[in-house]
Structure formats: C-alpha cells, structure tokens
C-alpha cells in the first residue's frame, strides 16, 4: 500500500518562496490566499489526501517551516 502522509506548514516561519509547492510530486501544496503577519503568502496543504509522505517539501524548505507526519 502506498505511504500516506500529512504535511504541516508553520505559517509564521514560512517566507512564501513556494519551493515546496513546486517540489511536491502529487500537488498537495499551494500558495495560501491569506498572508501571514509578515505579509508573506505561505504554502498550505490544500490536498492532504494526496500526500505520499515523500518528504520533498521538508527537504527543500530553506526555513524549516514544514513537518511531514507519516500516517
Ligand atoms: S519551502 Fe518553506 S518557506 Fe518556502 S513556501 Fe514552502 S514552507 Fe514556505
Ligand atoms: S511529503 Fe511529499 S507528497 Fe507530501 S506534501 Fe510533501 S512533497 Fe507533497
């Protein structure tokens, strides 16, 4: 059975670079339409059900704003 995962983004840590959005093979992540308190538009886990726990988003984030939980 395929791995299932759940990414969590720390909105206040996120700088809105969206490297994680591009790195996700199953298009779980997308830019949020609401800015954080710094004025950045953080990534959000819009389609959590598609997460395969590959860890790409965690690996590319320069600000350590992503945690991936294996389910
Ligand atoms: S890679 Fe990190 S800092 Fe960049 S958008 Fe994703 S969570 Fe935010
Ligand atoms: S762990 Fe992989 S599949 Fe899940 S959100 Fe991150 S990049 Fe996408």
Helix content: 10-25%
Number of domains: 1
Order of helices and strands: EHEEHE
Instruction: Label the CATH architecture.
Output: 2-Layer Sandwich
Characterize the main sheet: 2 strands, antiparallel
Strand content: 15-25%
N- to C-terminal separation?
A: 12 Å
List the ions, cofactors and other small molecules found in this model: iron/sulfur cluster
| Tally of individual helices | 2
Overall pLDDT level: 97
Point out poorly predicted stretches: none
Written description of the protein model:
It is a single chain. The chain has 71 residues and is an alpha+beta fold. The chain has one domain: Alpha-Beta Plaits, CATH 3.30.70.20. It contains two helices and four strands. It is elongated, with a radius of gyration of 11 Å. The mean pLDDT is 97. The chain binds iron/sulfur cluster (2 copies).
Any key phrases for this structure?
71 residues, 2 helices, binds iron/sulfur cluster, Alpha-Beta Plaits, two-stranded antiparallel sheet, alpha+beta
In short:
The longest helix has 5 residues. Helix content is about 15%, strand content about 25%. It contains two helices and four strands.
